[in-house]
Amino acid sequence: MPQITVDYTAVLTDEGAFDTGGFVRALHEAVVEIAAAKPEACKTMFRDGYSAYGYNAMDQSDALVHVTIALLAGRTEETKAKLTEAVLELVRSHVTPTDGITLHASAEVRELDPSYRKYEG
């Protein structure tokens, strides 16, 4: 915990527009500071791929970034909202605007289901 997933349009890394290394470091720092997580507990999976925006399925003029942070229960709604806003600001600061590409960014902080378990081996 926390389990973090970053889904994004591959064109952002193809164009060198998304500083994923700088982003993940800053993201983990924000999660530790705002949500009181331990640094070694932060786990992030980046998933790049093809995305569609509206009816523009074949158009590469739109890029998407969506960050999902799943935390153990117990954080206030205020804490979750503060973390979400911080994540969006981090996306803005780690994605360089690219001519002809509109960035659509979103973030969600949710609670892990009580059935959550983990294994380290």
TrEMBL record:
Pfam families per UniProt: CHMI (PF02962)
Keywords: Isomerase
Source superkingdom: Bacteria
Gene3D superfamilies on file: Macrophage Migration Inhibitory Factor (3.30.429.10)
UniProt-recorded Gene Ontology molecular function terms: isomerase activity
Protein name: Isomerase
Source organism (scientific name): Streptomyces hyaluromycini
